Give the backbone structure.
Amino acid sequence: MSVADNLQRLTGPYEQRSWLQRIPAAWWAVAVILLFMPVVANDFWLFQVMGWTFILGMIGLSLMFLAGYGGMVSLLQMTVAGVAGYMVAILGPSGANVSLGLAWWVVIPAAFLIAAIFATISGALAVRTDGIYTIMITLAIAAAFFYFTRQNYSIFNGYSGFNLVLPPKLFGVNWRDPMAFYYLSLACATLCYGAVVYISRSPFGLALQGVRDNPRRMAALGFNVTAHRVAAYALASIFASTGGILLVWQNAQIAPGTIGISAAIDVLVVAVVGGLRRPLGPFIGALIYVLLQVFSADILGLFGFSADRFKLIIGIGFLAIVLFSPDGVLALWDRWRARVDARKAAETRGAP
């Protein structure tokens, strides 16, 4: 039997199954839980916990896309999200006098476009370096934008920022209502996750992963390494901008503190704790981060500490993940499943 016949025999049954049949049962269970969560969860869980989880997950997803598929660790993603959020506040209606009050169908596309331009220009500067230098350049850009927004009053309204930045009431729905906002953020997170999965399997995504693994060889094959990396920054800005706009609508405000250095580091922590290798990782890391921060007072109270020690818990958890599972929480799950499968295989071989 030829190699082609063997490949057809191995891949034939898989290709004959529909995409619905290829989705694991666990994914269907998670989908059902998320869709019907408003039936059992209160407004606090829907709006504050899950809504914030989806938002942080999307911003972390943009970092995962750059680091996991492009090999570029960027501390700029919270800043990109902040640019989109600021554009919504500046161009649309808000409680500040400097806002222009334009219609939503102008504001939202403009926010995505301006954030993409910002990310593309920043990426063009950052991709010419590697490793720690990329991290330092993106951190420097994030710090510069933070201090610029804090000191500029004519456009960014300085230290006070913007308040009363509310989502438009489309289809007669108040999208800041906890249930409506939950489904809105869930839908956006699902679309962003699906987009990253699709892009990773597309020719561009495969070429980007080749650039990550061996840029010299990809350049020798005729690929423009710099263009692929800059395009990755532009694509990642879409996911970060989506999270940034939702974050502004959730808080109904934005200020320089929203995009500070601490927030940029938090996005890195979220992505690393969940896992930088798969798109699901940032959402897992975001859920862990949000639960720890929301319930930090209760958790720390059990050990006699104050809620101000929240960052200490996050730091210890981050160090533990980096030391014992560099690929994040998802790697621990994979190891556990591998042990279970190996044990079952050993029991099957030993059965009479």
Notes: The beta strands are 162-163, 253-254. The longest strand covers residues 162-163. The two ends are 33 Å apart (CA to CA). The longest helix spans residues 43-70.
